[in-house]
Amino acid sequence: MNNFQKLREELQDILKNEPNNYSKILELSNQLSKFDENNVRFSVDAGIINRLGMELVARHETAVSELVKNAYDADATKVKILFKDTSTIGGILEIHDNGSGMTREQLINGFMRLSSSEKMHFPLSPKYNRKRAGKKGIGRFSAQRLGRKLTIITQTLDTKQALKITINWDNFLGDSDLLSVTNQISFIDKVQDEGTILIIEQLRDSWSKAQIERVYRYASEILQPFPLSKTKNHLKTTIDPGFKLNCIKIDNGKKENIANEKTMFFEHALAEIDGKVDNEGFMYLTLKSNKLGYREKTFLLNLNTPFEVLKNVSLKAYYFVYGTDLIPKQIETIIREKSKSDGGIRLYRNGFRVAPYGDRGNDWLALDASVRRRTILPVHGNTNFFGFIEVHNDYGEQFEETSSREGLLHNLAFDELEDFGYKILVESVLKIASLRGIKQSTDQKEWKKEPEEIISEAISELKEIIDNPTQDNFEEQQDSQSITKNKLLEIAQELETAQKEQKERKQEFIKEMNLLRILAALGLTIGEFIHEIKQYQGALQHDIKNIENSTSLDNVLHVNQRVKANLEGLSTYVSYFDEAFSENVQRELKPIELRTVVYALQITLEADITKRKIEFIEPKFNGYNLYTIAMHKSEWASILFNFYTNSRKAINRAKVDGKIFIECGKIYNTVYLEFSDNGDGIQLENREKIFNAFYTTSTPVGKVVKTHEEMTGTGLGLKIVRDIITSYGGKIFVKEPTKGYSTTIRIELPWEKEGYKV
User: Fold this and answer.
1) What is the Cα–Cα distance from 573 to 529, expressed in whole angstroms?
2) Where do runs of H (alpha helix) occur along 34-75?
3) Is the pLDDT score of 468 beyond 60?
4) What is 510-757's CATH number, 3.40.50.1100, 3.60.40.10, 3.30.565.10, 3.40.50.11270?
């Protein structure tokens, strides 16, 4: 019996006895087809999956971004990527989306079918009519490129169960026919209402923070990073609510948000703006700027003229200023590009988006028109904002749709709404401009622009003309001055050179200011040193007289022991401050480990706290490698000694058995130190004042004031401390006291990750 006959009989037997053994049927059928001498067919080796995965997707960042785009194509509004233990090869990658999910047919004919033509036949997504972002059939190869094993869990809204399939890509490495490799599919309980989860195991590459951030940037073309109204479920509307991506790294159970709209967009905003109209028609603005160190403040803007019909309206916006080094260049590129399509203020009514307000080119709050008038000078066009206004119509039909469903009727309520949005945003811009020292309006008197500001504005305007010339603008330039594009570029280059020179001069000025700050801190340290030396000087002089006048050997020995103890304490102080002075002389900046400075202080104060019967509680350290950003070590001597002398005075005033406690730790990329005492405390209204120059609770400076008090008693001590901390990008403030204490001052500074290597 020849091979052909054997295969036929084997196939007949399988069809009769195992009709559901499709893999075997396919295998035998494929082998039989080779005996067809009159016809030839293409065959596919299973190894093509491996080769295509590696060849089509070169970088693993690209592979992940392609899978994100597949979620976008499935009308997802949120995607969460979990990088689990991916600092080394072999970790797990999970991609969760809330898209429409896949049916069994879609999974088989879409994902499991090579070169599927679905996206060619259906170029728009079914729910939000999104233009398909994913490449043709590259998603499955991306998954193979990333790891050796893939598990898909997917569910649609109208199904009761989820589908689960696990694919081991190693099965595709052999010489077997592609059709003979099977993957079992099963039904499981739903894990969410709809959407898909991809679990990729045994990753082929490790993932750094920078690589994860690149995934976000690669996917940025489809992201819509703007705040959304959250009062209703946006999935009920066919208007695209946007697409958001959150990349999370989990190592040894520790979670860190690497890239999301906050880290990649909104934390780079110059200001965060909140506006509202209350039930009485009064308009409030709440403004804060982390970049400018401006704490959240609220203002009433229309005390004398409340809105007539506008009630219970809210606004949320983020304000960006481009081309001023306020945003990292890579991030600025992403934000500026997104601002062209998604910038502006969107409108929501009862939780649902109202078009066309906030669409590209829609200037419903007249922000762009205001910029063109050039009455208000700080930048405040639509592309400078990402935000929304939320109105509620529960109380009536004040916000009615037009008959065409395109926008709202222009009545008194809508007029007041436009007025509210414009005034909140412009008032915010003006206040921010004031904080930056920028001229606010053309009629502002006695104002002179800084050269750097003039240069920066000129460069921005010239580049805007070059990059985005309108027909009118460009023709006007040609007719009036015959300035060519090359000439404009030449002007921009000259201005950039001038700006560079200006920045260099500014840097020299900053260096001088830093030196003055260091000298001020040194003066504070010297004042404290002199005071402590005088304390020991008096004690030693007293003991020497006792020895000279003593007639008892026992008394001499007793006094001698006291002299020895005072000399040891003095030696400790001298050593501590000598090290601080020498560090200042060298002026070398190094990351400072908080344990080092705290323990050094504890050793130095041992004699003094014993004498004064103050209990120095064992310091608490939360975590390891508590390195600050590079600083002068001497500055910590000034900071901690100032805290200690202030606590000592407060304890004396309170007439209690003194206690001092220091706690240090790290939260995300910030290290902190908290200094607590049980003195007489600081009144709530004075918690911010204590850091102002010349504010003090000590004895006023006069003729009888001792030397060290000329720094510490005038209120300059904490002012200098604050200047030190803020110069390194840190914060200092009085917080709610630690339990058992009356005062706690907290310092926060950037964490130096690589500090322990220095």
Assistant:
1) 8
2) 48-56, 60-73
3) no
4) 3.30.565.10
pLDDT band at 280 (very low <50, low <70, confident <90, very high): very high
Distance CA 273, CA 287 (A): 5
Tell me if 81 sits within 8 A of 93, measured CB to CB.
yes
CA distance 339 to 224: 9
Region 652-671: mean pLDDT is 92
DSSP state of 507: H
**Fold (CATH) for 48-263:** Heat Shock Protein 90 (3.30.565)
Greatest Cα pair distance in the chain:
131
Please report, rounded to a whole number, the percentage of residues in the chain having pLDDT higher than 70. 66
- Which residues lie closer than 8 Å to 497 by C-beta, 6 or more apart? none
Tell me the pTM.
0.52
Ordered strands of the 195-203 beta sheet: 185-189, 161-168, 147-155, 195-203, 92-97, 78-84, 244-251, 254-259
CA atoms of 659 and 639, how far apart (whole Å): 18
What pLDDT does residue 401 have? 74
Q: What is the pLDDT of residues 231-254, one digit of tens each?
A: 444 434 566 777 889 999 999 989
Length of the chain: 758
The residue ranges of every structural domain in the chain are: 3-33, 48-263, 270-436, 510-757
d(CA 51, CA 530): 76
Q: Are 469 and 483 in contact (CB under 8 A)?
A: no
> What 3-state DSSP class applies to 704?
coil
**Measured between alpha carbons, how far is residue 201 from residues 62, 182, 267, 311 in Å?**
18, 19, 33, 53
* Pair type for strands 659-667 and 615-616: parallel
Q: What is the mean pLDDT of residues 547-571?
A: 67
CATH of range 270-436; options 1.10.287, 3.30.230, 3.30.70, 3.30.1180: 3.30.230
Q: Which helix (H) or strand (E) holds 93?
A: strand 92-97
pLDDT for 201: 94
Chain centroid to CA 99: how far? 26
